[in-house]
Amino acid sequence: MVNIMEANTITKNPGTAVLEDRAQAGTQETAERIPVFKTNNFNLWYGDNHALQDINLRFNQNEVSAIIGPSGCGKSTFVKALNRMVELVPIVRTEGEILYRDQDIFNRKMTVEELRTKVGMVFQKPNPFPKSIYDNVAYGPRVHGIRKKKVLDEVVEKSLRDAAIWDEVKDRLNENAYGLSGGQQQRICIARALATEPDVILMDEPTSALDPISTTKVEDLMHELKKNYSIIVVTHNMQQAARVSDTTAFFYQGYVVEHDDTKVIFGNPRDQRTEDYVSGRFG
Amino acid sequence: MSNYNIQEMIQKNKSNKGAVVEKSIPVILFLITSVSILATIGILYTLISQSLEFFSRESFMTFITSANWSPYGAEPEFGIWALVMGTMKVVAIATVFAVPVGLGAAIYLSEYATERVRKIIKPILEVLAGIPTVVYGFFAINFVTPVLQSIWPEISLYNAISAGLVVGIMIIPMIASLSEDAMSSVPNSMREGSLGMGATRLETTFKIVLPAAVSGIIASIVLAVSRAIGETMIVSIAAGSTPNASLDITSSLQTMTGFIVQITSGDAAYGSSLYFSLFAVGMTLFVMTFTMNIISQWITKRYREEY
Amino acid sequence: MQLIDKNLIAKKRSGRLTLNNAMKWIFFLCTMVGLIVLVTLIVDTLMDAVGYLNMDFLTNFSSSRVESAGFYGAIIGSLWLMLVTVPVAIFLSVATALYLEEYAPKNKVTDFIKINISNLAGVPSVVFGLLGLAIFVRAMAMGNSVLAAGLTLALMILPVIVVSSQEAIRSVPSTVREASIGMGATKWQTVSRIILPAAIPGIITGIILAISRAIGETAPLVVIGVPTTLLVTPDGLLDSFQAMPMQIYAWIKMPQEEFQYLAAAGIIVLLAILILMNSVAIFIRNKFSRRY
User: Fold this and answer.
1) CA distances from B197 to A45, A130, A257, B129, C24 (A)
2) How far is CA B109 from the centre of its chain?
3) Closest to C51 (Cα-Cα) out of C66, C37, C38, C61
4) Name one Pfam family in it (chain A) (predicted).
5) Residue C103, pLDDT score
6) Which residues in chain A belong to E strands, given as ranges?
């Protein structure tokens, strides 16, 4: 740990340089990859606490992008900034750009409601509403003004199928979602996020509250879902990042140490700290 | 250095006196605690015994079926419905006014307001809740009634609207702060779930927060209605002293509490039917507010821990 | 497969946002109703009171003549009233709160006592007045004295102080309690030397708020028959007395318009006392809160 702290103070700027270096290399490697999110020198403060510093990242369509890092490194804050959920904390201040499909999400033309309709979210703890399973999944389409029973029925079924939980709940759609297990609840929440057919799905440590079997199910699900969606997932579980993601960004103390294809991050990272972290030497 | 032994000194200091104190304190405290039970027994005994005395003189059937309350004169009639209707009119107006406003304020404080605004508004609500009801009565008769009369000249000096509105103002802080408590205790993860899929604050409030907090909100409303039923000074000052069971809200009426105040501030000869009728009316009032309080407590208890 | 009509969603969005914004303002207005009423009430009363609020008003007894009528008897009477209510209420309520929090076994009797106290809190004040009238004034033959009214009000505010004292006692952390018991102190030593002193600020705050409720309470005094036309202050607990809210009520009920101004002046004095008491309560709460 002491090592890391020293390394940090010494190589902070070189770390950013490596990142920029990588980003350019990345652009070449991934010429056919279409970006959904790009951030330009994004900074975020909680009051006086500079929680995110000069974040420059891109996330691509139809990929699973993992964000890893030790607790308190800003990874959850960052993913919540992508759909502006972070603004629910009143003392937050931001600087720099986040581009979603080349539109600045902080631009007044884009309302948070519109952004969040396109960029859905699955939370750390399963948070179903105290309503029936059906009403949970139909919630999004309904608030957005879709009322036709037939459409809603189809959307609910498709979302539950896509979230790989249809078979478990199809006979009890009118039961309260609270009666389900934690793993099932989390898949209901994924189905709920899918129901509005978003473009991007943000997942904030979606398996941290789940047992191993449910975790495997959710991981398999991410793999399936990337055919139709772009997924950005925060995880503190490195095996999970290695298993499910295409690219991985390593956050440390509020800035990005390294962002690259997952196989590079886990196979041949450029930064010593990344190597130390992915090999389990700290964090 | 020293020959003192603390442990020995402590042993020496231990006396029987200490043990007696330890044993007697809980008993003494329990005896004082039972004064609260005595108060309840006192209330029940007073109301029941004096009401029984009243019903030995006047017809119980008339009391609970008649809507004619004319307690004076040679042949008085005690029909409680005239007073109950008076109370109901005032309470209905108060509720219709206070529930939307109180809930609106609760929603604003819990769902929209920043921490700073909340810190300013909540003490104001506390101050409003602490204003003596006689002051509200003055406000009703000297401000609200004249304003209403200038808009709507048919309203008489004593009426149900003015009294009802001001009773409503009195219970707004109660509804607002208890409902806000109920809404604030809905976990944030639920709001996030809704906001995170593009729902507005309004949709999140009405579809997620309010349904989850509904038991606390209803309990607060029931409690506030109970408070409105028992409210005395505002109605004594602004509602008049004309018992009637009509639905007219523009003219003078009398509530149960208003009757008690009217009779006790004059001199009802001790031992007369009029005197004992106070307790029959008090009993009715007690039963109504007690029932509301029990309902409120039952709702809170029954539907707690939903998440 | 696209089931969701994205165009429909986009089309409906602006309406939803407008509604959200409009309702936000309506909710804000609801919140402001309280403030508006408070300001109106105080300004309106002050304007009525302004010509009548002077030293004579504070030093004269009540009178049927407007020019010479004052609030002196009522102010002194209310002080006498509190002289009975405050010690009795504090003694009964704090002991009850200590018993319930520190000594009461978990059983049906305790549950019953707790339910009883919360129901007592919901009994209308005018019913407490009937209790006072039948028990203290008549059965115990105290008449409409300071003692009868003071005891009635003490019973009325008892549940309020019990509940707030219970909260204050509960907020003393169990670590402090364990530290005391852990070095061999007895239960009562711990309660009297550690818990009670630590809970005192919270208890006092609750007491002040309850007293400010008692001081403005009118209905029980009317029922007990507190007079409004005395020309003396009481000399003892069994004497008749006047009280501020009672005097205000009597003036409001007078047919001549001038008495309304006197009532307004009385209200300003009463509100000033209440605001002072509340400020002290808030000061104590802020000064001593977050000690742990």
Assistant:
1) 24, 17, 31, 39, 20
2) 22
3) C66
4) ABC_tran
5) 93
6) 35-46, 49-60, 64-68, 92-100, 103-104, 119-122, 200-204, 230-234, 247-252, 255-261
Q: In chain B, where are the structural domains located?
A: 12-57, 77-302
The radius of gyration of chain B from alpha carbons, rounded to an integer in Å, stands at 26
Q: Which of C1, C2, C4, C5 to mutate to test the interface with A (most CBs of A within 10 A)?
A: C4
- Residue A116's CATH number: 3.40.50.300
* Mean pLDDT, all residues of chain A: 87
Angle at B111 between CA A128 and CA A185, to 5 degrees: 5
Q: Name the DSSP letter for residue A147.
A: -
| Whether B107 and C155 lie within 8 Å, measured CB to CB | no
What average pLDDT score do residues A223-247 get?
A: 92
Mean pLDDT of C263-282: 92
**Which of the other chains make 3 or more beta carbon contacts under 8 angstroms with chain B?**
A, C
Best of C2, C8, C9, C20 to substitute, by most chain A Cβ atoms within 10 angstroms, is: C9
Strands A64-68 and A230-234: parallel
Q: Measured in whole angstroms, how far is the alpha carbon of residue A264 from the centre of its chain?
A: 20
Q: Are β-strands A255-261 and A247-252 bridged in parallel, bridged antiparallel, or unpaired?
A: antiparallel
Can you give the pLDDT at residue C290? Answer: 54
How many whole angstroms separate alpha carbon B136 and alpha carbon A226? 65
What is the rounded distance in angstroms from the CA atom of residue B51 to the CA atom of residue B60? 10
Tens digit of each residue's pLDDT (9 = 90 or more) over C113-137: 999 999 999 999 999 999 999 999 9
In a domain, A47, yes or no: no
Q: Residue C63 has which token pair?
A: 């009178």
* Within-domain flag for A94: no
Rg of chain A in Å (alpha carbons) = 19
Measured CA to CA in angstroms, residue C12 lies from A75, A141, B133, B201 at distances of 34, 12, 48, 16
Tell me the fold of B77-302.
Answer: MetI-like fold (1.10.3720)
d(CA B301, CA B78): 38
Planar angle of CA C261, C267, C273, nearest 5 degrees: 145
How many domains is chain A built from? 1
Quick: pLDDT tens for C31-64. 999 999 999 999 999 999 998 888 888 888 888 7
Q: Quick one: which of B280, B246, B278, B247 has its CA closest to B262? A: B278
Q: Which domain holds residue A203?
A: 62-86+108-278
Q: What's CA A107's distance to the chain center, in Å?
A: 22
State the smallest CA–CA distance between residue A121 and chain B in angstroms: 6
Q: Is residue A5 part of a domain?
A: no
Helix (H, G, I), strand (E, B) or coil at B6: helix
- Pairwise CB contact (< 8 Å): A158 & C1: yes
Record: contact B107-C122, CB cut-off 8 A: no
DSSP symbol at B227: H
ipTM over 0.90: yes
CATH fold of C56-288 reads: MetI-like fold (1.10.3720)
**Phi and psi torsions of A52, nearest 5°:** -130, 130
Phi, psi of B259 (to 5 degrees): -65, -45
Structure tokens at B187: 């976990």
Residue C157 near residue C214 (C-beta atoms within 8 A): yes
Q: Which residue has the tokens 């009634």?
A: B145
pLDDT at A254 over 80: yes
> In this structure, what token pair is assigned to residue B165?
């509105």
Interface of C with A (CB under 8 A): 1-6, 8-10, 12-13, 16-17
CA distance linking residue C224 with residue C131, whole number of Å:
9
Half-sphere exposure of A126 (CA within 13 A, CB side): 27
Distance between CA atoms of residues A72 and A84, nearest Å: 19
Q: How many CA atoms lie within 13 A of C282 on its CB side?
A: 12
The DSSP string of C65-97 is SGGG--SHHHHHHHHHHHHHHHHHHHHHHHHHH
